[in-house]
Amino acid sequence: MRRSRLPITLLALTALVGSSLVATAPAGAEPTARTGADQAHDHPHSANSVRIQMTGADMLEKVVAAGFDIDHGLRRVPDGIEGEAVVTTEQVAALKAMGVQVLDDDEGFEWSEEADGGLRALGARAVPSFSHEKTVRVVRADWFTTKGQGFLYVEARTTEGQQASPIVAMQLENDSGQGTPFGFARTMSRFVDSGQYMFHRNLFKLDARPSQIRVTSSTGGVTTGTVSNWLEDAPPPLTARPGYQADFVDGYRHPQQLFSRAKEIAQQYPDIAEIVYLPHRTNGYQRKAQATIGGTGQEAVVVSSAAWGHEGGNDVTVEFVDRPGGNLPLTVEVTGKAVRVLLAKDASGALASTAAQVAAALESQSQGLIDRAHPYRTNTGTGIVVPTAGPVALSDFLDEKRVGAPEGEVPRGPASIPVLRIGKHRDGRNPGVLIQAQDHAREWVPATTTLETAERLVRNYKTDQETKKIVQDTDIFLILSNNPDGANYSFYNYASQRKNLTNHCEDANADPARRNSWGVDLNRNYRVGSGHDGYAGGSTTCTSGTYQGPEKLSEPESKNVVWLVEKYSNIKFMMSVHSNGGQLFWQPGAYIADGRITTPRPPLGDEAFYWQSAGRILSQVKAHRETVVTPENVGGSSDVLYSSAGNVREDMYHTYGIYSFGWEVGGSVYNPATGNWQGGSFQPPWVGDPTLVSGHAETMEYANGIMEMFRIAAEWGKDKKKPTSELVPGGGTYRGPVDVRFETSEPATIYYTTDGSRPTLESPRYEATEFREPGQVFHVTETTTFRWFSVDTAGNIERNYDPTKSDRRDNYRSATVTIGG
């Protein structure tokens, strides 16, 4: 096992933001047999996309608990949380009954430029005032441009923000450039999550780049901050290099196409590529054949075959038969795959078999054809069963071809997932990078983005020097689809499928009308910060879009990822690619709702490295068509989005020390014509306006970002340079108390002492003032000697100091701050 990460924080940023949100609770009439109406009752095109708004995190939790899938595409607005839902008319009514506001879908959201702005921005770090007496701190003040327009995003925090009454108001002003006065006053929005004050924030469009901002609190606090650039002046992407080849993927790909192409690449480029098969086979694109017979009342019976549908279950028929006469017993006849239930009759000749009795007879007398029969959902089965009009065919309800879906039969049965491994030296010497796409089935762009990066690597290896460096200096593992069963279901049956196809539901949720809600959310099935340990964001309801599974690592797909990083211990970087929303995030990923207690935050050095890497990755995304992932959408995922218990990133980082990113591709694109930000979707049109939303454009721009992540990993593996650090303003004699802080030459973690002892890895670690803020400030009131050393993310220690040994060559850093000398 590699070393585990421990707690901490960093520079700063936070907020929630938007894209689309889909509800997968079953819709429409309940099927009783395989009819045309049954096949269409929950077809993806029977639902519509609507914009909704919830009052806050408490309502969000209630909506999730009710079975609606809203894990993606949320954005914070001044008076709540907004997103999109793909729902039926019945589900819209259910949302309204819960107090959810259904908005006019023709109106795009736009932050007010006069007051209560709050999000939708990007940024760079502000330089805060370090006086310990300040009650207001500027967290970020970021300037960026997109589509010819300029935007300023600000986060500020008041030390009095948590109090409930009076609510602290904050006002923001900015200048119009260096040397100009402050003006343009506007009120900032107060952001509270899970009952905890986070900060105030604002985003607005400006004609000129400001140099400074001033924030004033209603309690009297005032501070200023310097405006920084966010993703400005990005270097050109690899695609701008002469002769560089790109744009290889010309449409969406289902898992068979993805895996087939991965194997072709390994065959075509054996000197730099190979296939690694993951050991745990998936449940498979398969289901038992079923039927709900007799409506949905107390007389209804749900029947499931013993064999998988494609292995004979689809050939089974069940018929409920009336016979003349009286005092007849309940019996079952089986001829081949035809099951006839001869219903009981009393002395008067009236039908007398209840649904519960018929279900029991089917299980015991069907000669092994019926595995499970039970009353419908929570019914007790006391109703008298009536005869059917004829034999009812059972069906696994698979292979319902969706309009536009690719041709070809989907292989049934358990599937082995291939990993495409690319690297000139695949022997563990180079840092490994794991890209995991399509944990969630309906997210089609992550798969094409990952395939595009594979094509760029192998096609440019011999002709482009930068690509050659990547392939020679890294060991890349690409999981093109980590949820092939669910992805096939999304392509062929139900476009909004999120989870895998493993059904853990009991009888109350096991009828075929629930089939689009079965499965496990693979990104809630891991071990760190799990819902099983009380963290928020993972559901115990089997039909919920965020169902976490019956236990940690219950699913083969999640077990496979753990197997991969344990077998290939050189994997040091990981990105789980999702859609949509444009967020790029890391730890912490979850919190316990009561008190908003997060999983441990990364050390300051790690968080600084995450931020530095994010800037590089997102600059390459912007270089394609000016899509800006804003700083409100970057940071710890529990701060940027919401709590997602049991996510893969948390497990990879805290258990194995792997720098683990999560990426929601498909960020909002600013539309100058409307003045609004246009969000993405899970399956945007492949070809569309290249300046706005299209699957092709998203694939190309986010492939740019993944290629930059490879370069970051390659440089990390070659990094032998020792970090340097300073105490600012430094040692010396001061007349009175003084504020000091540490600064480093690169992202690095500082261990220090002030008690005269030598610093070790067990010494206090330099942390952030608050999450999303720079390092803490020490208010020194008496003479103090600081001893410290810094360690960068590659493990290089300042001055070659060995914190594990004590000898006369102790070359840690030291500075004495003398007060009143």
UniProtKB/TrEMBL annotation:
Biological processes annotated in GO: proteolysis
Domain of life: Bacteria
Region (Disordered): 28-47, 802-821
Domain annotation Peptidase M14: ranges: 374-706
Reported cofactor(s): Zn(2+)
Signal peptide start-end: 1-25
Compositional bias of kind Basic and acidic residues: 802-812
One cellular-component annotation, GO: extracellular space
Coiled coil residues, start to end: none
SUPFAM superfamilies, alphabetized: Zn-dependent exopeptidases
Pfam families from the UniProt entry: CHB_HEX_C_1, Peptidase_M14
Residues the record marks as active site: E664 (proton donor/acceptor)
Keyword Protease: yes
UniProtKB keywords: Hydrolase, Metalloprotease, Protease, Signal, Zinc
One GO MF term: zinc ion binding
Family, as annotated: Belongs to the peptidase M14 family.
Protein's name in the database: Chitobiase/beta-hexosaminidase C-terminal domain-containing protein
